Amino acid sequence: MSTKEAIAPAEVRGIIRQNQWLKPTSGLAHGYIQANLAVLPKDLAFEFLLFCQRNPKPCPIIDVTMPGSPVPALAAPSADLRTDIPKYRVYRNGIFTEELTDVTELWDDSMVGFLIGCSFTFEEALLKNDIPIRHIEEGCNVPMYKTTIPTVKAGRFEGPTVVSMRPMTEKDAIRAVQVTSRFPSVHGAPVHIGNPEAIGIPDLNNPDFGDKVTIREGEVPVFWACGVTPQAVAMHVKPDIMITHAPGHMFITDLKNEQFSIL
Amino acid sequence: MSTKEAIAPAEVRGIIRQNQWLKPTSGLAHGYIQANLAVLPKDLAFEFLLFCQRNPKPCPIIDVTMPGSPVPALAAPSADLRTDIPKYRVYRNGIFTEELTDVTELWDDSMVGFLIGCSFTFEEALLKNDIPIRHIEEGCNVPMYKTTIPTVKAGRFEGPTVVSMRPMTEKDAIRAVQVTSRFPSVHGAPVHIGNPEAIGIPDLNNPDFGDKVTIREGEVPVFWACGVTPQAVAMHVKPDIMITHAPGHMFITDLKNEQFSIL
């Protein structure tokens, strides 16, 4: 590992910490794991961790902070979760109240930060295998849908799985299963291929989150469990306060994508 | 799935519940996941769950009960963790105090039961691949050793990894890596092959737990992370009370081994 590669994530986080990068993080610190953030009070931490453990496809845990600490000791020991994400969203009693670039003033001794794997890692693996990704080609967000696939309940946390969709040829879909199966810590294999109605999606052209993409003749929709799921489920519990990243504005870890492949 | 296969684990648990089977569970309910048990008070549950999440090789979580509930809702919804294990061990402030066949009277509203994967599952996979297992051939317990391989700390929980050892030919060792990599939820791939001193084991003939086995000419020792690790680590924290299974006397789930293979 060259010095440049080793310091890249910390350098990027330094720029973000000084509020000099307020845009989405896609493409930054190439080759390193980026993560979704969910911050919850510690009285919900055991149940939420158990929810994630029971639902590893939508909620792959990358790191969890100890109550009160803003430091993800395993994923990025020099980082501070209160400042190192370009934009945060704050929800009070399940309602979105504000967008901030720093949440230091909101972080108290009860806060537990959960870093959850995101699709950037497996998308990099798909691209390396020459599988084109439509929403990247079209310069928009990935389309996401609520489904009828239930998550496994844990205490107060329950709700439907949210999926992201990437259209591709049937040949590429088989290769995509192989490629993404290597990365169970960042959503892993698809949860569904083909008929969207079978998982409760009435219209692919009307995603619940993100943007619509073109599906070409001869292509099949491939669905992966999505990191929006745990946020949606947690919001439903209406915690006093919950902090997340703003969509696309992820936390950049010191961990390399390849460290998370299983074979 | 035939009816006989479907009811086998529940039938076996029924016999155990009536104290009509007080022996080790190896070989019972063939093809079903058996699990280690660790029961801890709920004030330690978040940290212990996080410890397991950070150390999936020694501590692969199969199921966790909600505080106070003795029912492992995912692993065996008709079971009762207070009665369905042949023999329990009780530790108070980290010291072994009693062996019981039923822990109903000790189970209060604060208890959280953790079911952790055990090596029976991957041993079955090794045998299916014609890889002989010495301690089964010799009719004794698998040899286990404390190592210098650290676990990843989570709050109060920290300590060395305990490993189990199976000697085999070098050819079989390669196949064993492939076979057990398919089962990350039950310890997964070996943590070490070869020189025991490299992981802090001075003498293979003096295991810290279990029994010594014969190592033949041309064989290499293969080490797997062991489910004794989380118990040893938890005992070090000296909880007011901790309940475990007695060695070899496991909890039999309704989950099939093959459900836990990743590829």
Please characterize this protein's 3D structure.
The structure is a homodimer of 263-residue chains. By secondary structure, the first copy, chain A, is an alpha+beta fold. The first copy, chain A, has 2 domains: 3-118 and 230-260, PSTPO5379-like (3-Layer(aba) Sandwich); 120-229, 2-Layer Sandwich (PSTPO5379-like fold), CATH 3.30.2040. Helix content of chain A is 22%, strand content 26%. The first copy, chain A, contains 6 helices and 11 strands. In chain A, strands 1, 2, 3, 4, 5, 10 and 11 form a 7-stranded antiparallel β-sheet that branches. A 4-stranded antiparallel β-sheet of chain A has the order 6-7-9-8. The radius of gyration of chain A is 18 Å and the shape is globular. At the A-B interface, helix 2 of A face helix 2 of B.
